[in-house]
Design brief:
Elements: H1 7-28, H2 35-48, E1 52-56, H3 59-69, E2 77-80, H4 87-94, E3 98-101, H5 116-119, E4 124-127, H6 139-149, E5 152-156, E6 164-165, E7 168-169, E8 176-180, E9 194-198, H7 201-210, H8 232-242, H9 245-263, E10 278-279, E11 285-288, H10 292-301, H11 331-339, E12 340-343, H12 351-371
Parallel strand pairs: 2-3, 2-4, 4-5, 5-8
Antiparallel strand pairs: 1-9, 6-7, 6-10, 8-9, 11-12
Helix pairs in contact: 1-8, 2-8, 3-4, 3-7, 9-12, 10-12
The protein binds pyridoxal-5'-phosphate (PLP).
């Protein structure tokens, strides 16, 4: 059995340090918005290369509160992709705005930045590029369009902590960067958590209020907010893990290149492409194959934890029926939804395990062809 991700192996390396930090928090009597949150916010800002970071309950809240802080709401349109996790568009829906979908690029799984301009209307207020699977979007083109049309950019970096575009970390390009500490992420907590990054003092102040019932002074409330604070136990755990993230991301990249090499003899497997001048952090290693569903079932039966992210594109989900975007509207999104399959990927994955995964993918591919 080779799982898609094995967090137990990570725990073997850093468990002792985490246990000691958690015990210290338990003994401290300070559990929410305390010294670890403050220290993590500073360390995170330094790591990403921004002025401010704000600890939140989740990546979803980072997206939602970013939209609130920028006054995106009913009547506004937000351009994004349908090839992402639902939280991206859920945040748009929560504030009462409308998602407008742009197709993905045929090679990188990310928004086709050259298609964005066609989707802009007088109602467009923001763009949410999603750095899917750890791969940075084409930020130069996106930022130029945003500047030209006076649009906000909120980067969904939930899968891409540490990824860079032309040497700059994702989360430092747009008005706000949104990160998730969901346990399976490259930098995961041991519960839910998230972070918003920004260079704007105004957005920082607004989000400080929004995450804490709409006011920055206790018991004084300026607007409707939410309860979305990062707890001290998560902040302490994430601080320990932040020290390792570059090493872990490097190992993920090495594993990705090893997979590329092992698959290079098999043209029937399309391996992931990177944009020039980017540093992809391979939250997922995602291939494209024909007969994907059969191959996936066979792999699962063989004990290989392959996964499909995501089986239904967002424009065809029930929750978005009201948008009336029909099948066929986003050809590359729809095509990739049928072909993609993510393989086991984590820093501690061994070379022997990768070879086993590749052997199984090829065997299952051939079996699936025979069944057809
Ligand atoms: C692309 C993307 N956006 C948003 C989120 C939401 O993050 P969270 O689960 O922390 O709310 C996730 C992760 O789950 C994600 O993968």
């Amino acid at each position: 059995m080779i799982p898609i991700l094995d967090l137990k192996r990570q725990y073997e390396q850093i468990g002792k340090e985490i246990e000691s930090e958690v015990i210290n928090v338990l003994k401290s009597g300070s559990y929410i918005l305390g010294k670890h949150n403050k220290a993590l916010e500073e360390e995170f800002s330094k790591y990403i290369g921004v002025k401010h970071s704000l600890g939140l309950n989740s990546g979803t809240d980072a997206l939602h509160l970013a939209l609130r802080a920028l006054d995106v709401g009913p009547g506004d349109e937000v351009i994004t992709v349908a090839f992402t996790f639902v939280a991206t568009t859920e945040a748009i829906g929560i504030v009462g705005a409308k998602p407008v979908f742009v197709d993905i690029d045929k090679d990188t799984f990310n928004i086709d930045a050259n298609e964005i301009e066609k989707a802009i209307t007088p109602k467009t207020k923001a763009i949410i590029p999603v750095h899917l699977y750890g791969q940075p979007c084409d930020m130069d083109v996106i930022m130029d369009i945003a500047k030209k049309y006076n649009l906000y950019v909120i980067e969904d970096c939930c899968q891409a902590i540490g990824a860079t575009y032309k040497g700059k970390k994702v989360g430092s390009f747009g008005d706000v960067g949104c990160f998730s500490f969901f346990p399976t992420k490259n930098l995961g907590g041991m519960g839910d958590g998230g972070m918003a990054t920004t260079n704007s003092n105004y957005i920082k102040e607004r989000m400080i209020g929004l995450r804490n019932h709409g006011g920055s002074v206790r018991y004084y409330h300026d607007e409707i907010g939410v309860n979305s604070r990062l707890d001290e136990i998560q902040a302490a755990i994430i601080r320990v893990k932040l020290k390792h993230i570059d090493g872990w991301n490097k190992k993920r990249r090495e594993n990705a290149y090893r997979y590329n090499e092992l698959f290079s003899k098999y043209p029937e497997v399309v391996t992931p492409k990177e944009l020039d001048d980017t540093f992809c952090v391979y939250h997922q290693y995602t291939i494209k194959v024909e007969n994907r569903d059969e191959v996936h079932s066979l792999l699962q039966a063989a004990g290989i934890g392959a996964m499909i992210y995501y089986p239904v594109p967002l424009h065809l989900q029930k929750v978005h029926e009201y948008l009336n975007v029909k099948e066929g509207a986003l050809p590359y999104t729809e095509e990739d939804t049928k072909l993609v399959m993510s393989l086991p990927m984590f820093p501690e994955l061994t070379e022997a395990e990768q070879q086993t995964v590749v052997n199984n993918v090829i065997t299952c591919l051939h079996q699936a062809q025979l069944v057809k």
